[in-house]
Amino acid sequence: MLLLYAVRLVRTGISRAYGASFKRIVTRNESPPRAAINGLMLAILLQSSAAVTILVSEFAAVGAIGLAGGIAVVIGADLGSALIVKVLSLRVDWLSPILLAVGGALFLKTQAKVSVQSGRILIGLGLILLALQLLRQTVEPVQQGAYFPAIAAYLESDPITAFLVGAILALIMHSSVAVILMCVTLLAISAFPFSVGLSLALGANLGSALIPIWLTRGKDIEIRRIPLANLIIRGSFAILALLLWFRLPTDQILVQIEPSERLVLLHIVFNALLFLFLPFVGPFARGLMKLFPPKVAGDSVTNSLLDWTVLDENSLDTPALALTCVRREVLRMMQVAEVMMTRVITHLEDGNLEAIAETKDLDLKLNDCLTGIRQYVIDMHDQALTKPQKREARRLTEAAINVETAGDIVSRRLVPLTILKAKSGIRFSEEGWAELVEVHEQVVAITKLASNVLLSEDVDAARVLVEEKSDLAKRERASRKKHLKRIQKGTELSLESSDLHLETLRAFREFGSQLSSVAYPILSREGHLLDSRLVARDEN
Fold first, then answer.
1. Of 48, 45, 64, which is closest to residue 56 (Cα–Cα)?
2. Is the pTM here over 0.85, yes or no?
3. Are 497 and 426 in contact (CB under 8 A)?
4. Phi, psi at 500, each rounded to 5°
5. Alpha helix locations (H) across 383-497?
6. 291 vs 246: CA distance, rounded Å
7. Are 359 and 429 a contacting pair, CB within 8 Å?
8. How far does CA 207 lie from the centroid of its chain?
9. CA gyration radius for the chain?
């Protein structure tokens, strides 16, 4: 459990520190080999190929990445998770207290987002090393008992059972990295033969492909296609590798290498061989599309959000249901605002005036939604509402107003800026554009998190949202400072795009602030907000 928790801790730290950049990395329009390399890097960062598979599936579902490109990313992620096993299996137990001390200091004593999350990552790495050390110490006396050798002997005589056990362990633990690290540790102390460790590791590869299948069960086929493709490819390779290893004369392969190191090496080789499938991802993706066609063709994401309302008039007689309808309508507004903000960076890049006009028109839909919510809440007051229900109605109405204001920021400030850039031919400097992209990614991440906070009302998530808002303000100030320094140095493109750059930054920040406000009522209700940010005045 400590090993599982530590792996999750590292993944959480990396996601919170750099998660806003993942979509840009994944959705680059690149060849399958380059897409696979992107997947490899993401898996190393996230410590999990299953996490990358889920991430890519969500992007594919909204059309941000093609099916073939998504499959290539996942193939690279499988190799990335195997390389992580190699790094974490190194015997560097002496690093554990150092990592825990440095990580603890960063996590507890610093305020900057990246520093805090870096501390979380170091704590996780230190706990991984500690968990592996404890695992070795625990198993050493156990293997001397009567049951452990009997189990090891049975698994050695039945590789198929060992293979299935490995798959089940990976599925239960939700981490093939943890399962294979456990196998490596047990092989290092000769707890069971190498053949058992190999069967377990191959099974863990199958189990790793089953994890996204389980997590996306019940979702639309657009989300489930990439996990299914990964299961077909990786699962088939795992079963084939198991059959070949025990049917061919492989007893003398790499015998000069220690069993634990041999297992890690073969695990990496197995996942590297998946790259042989990259030339075929295109035809495979087309076949998968025919086998699992979309349920509804031709409907865009925005149309599904805009053509209907969830404000059910029949629910007005039941205040609890009516409030749920209002919350869902505000959530729908947030999704529309997210679509608007997501498109802005593309408009700044390509200057497609027709697409820009479509984005501007979405603000009219937000206005209609807000009007509908106001009238719906008025109609609710005709019913007998309790005081908490009245407070909830006011809170949701305020949230809707903030979302509509965020839409105004896009339509009245950002859209004119994209039109100005398209018509004037203004160009950003390379450094300035990179800064805008990073800030935009964080704003989109804040939008997604705000939707989750509205739905869950989770206090911890609300705190993270406010921290993200504060970090966005710091990032905006840092970009503004760098931009002014470039102007002082005489950078022509920075001088040419100065007004456009600064106005865009300011609009991004205000958009994020509007949506982050959904967290404050939750934090205030739970006593997590100070009355004032001012330092108390000394009356003496």
1. 64
2. no
3. yes
4. -65, -45
5. 387-408, 415-424, 430-456, 459-488, 492-496
6. 33
7. no
8. 21
9. 27
How far apart are the C-alpha atoms of 538 and 47, rounded to whole Å? 50
* C-alpha dihedral sign at 428, 431, 434, 435: negative
Which residue's entry shows tokens 């204001």? 405
Joined together, the tokens standing for residue 477 give 């100030």
Note down pLDDT in tens along the chain; length 540 residues. 887 788 778 877 877 776 656 666 666 666 888 889 988 988 887 777 888 888 788 777 766 678 888 899 999 999 998 998 888 777 777 888 999 999 999 998 887 777 888 899 899 888 888 887 787 777 666 656 667 778 888 888 888 999 999 999 888 888 788 888 888 888 888 888 888 989 999 999 999 999 889 888 877 788 889 999 999 999 999 999 998 887 776 556 666 788 888 899 999 999 999 999 999 998 998 898 888 886 544 444 444 555 577 888 888 888 888 888 999 999 989 989 998 998 898 899 888 888 899 889 889 989 999 999 999 988 887 667 888 888 889 999 999 999 999 999 999 999 999 999 988 888 888 888 988 988 998 898 899 889 888 888 888 888 888 888 888 898 899 999 999 998 888 888 888 888 999 999 999 999 999 999 999 988 888 887 776 665 655 555
Going along the chain from its start, the domains and CATH numbers come out as: 2-291 (no CATH), 303-525 (1.20.58.220)
Q: Are 403 and 433 in contact (CB under 8 A)?
A: no
The residue among 286, 263, 150, 249 whose CA lies nearest residue 200 is: 263
Measured between alpha carbons, how far is residue 534 from residues 469, 480, 537 in Å?
19, 25, 8
**Burial level of 78, CB count in 10 A (0-12/13-18/19+)?**
buried
* Residues 6+ positions from 369 with CB-CB distance below 8 Å: 309, 329, 332, 333, 336, 400, 404
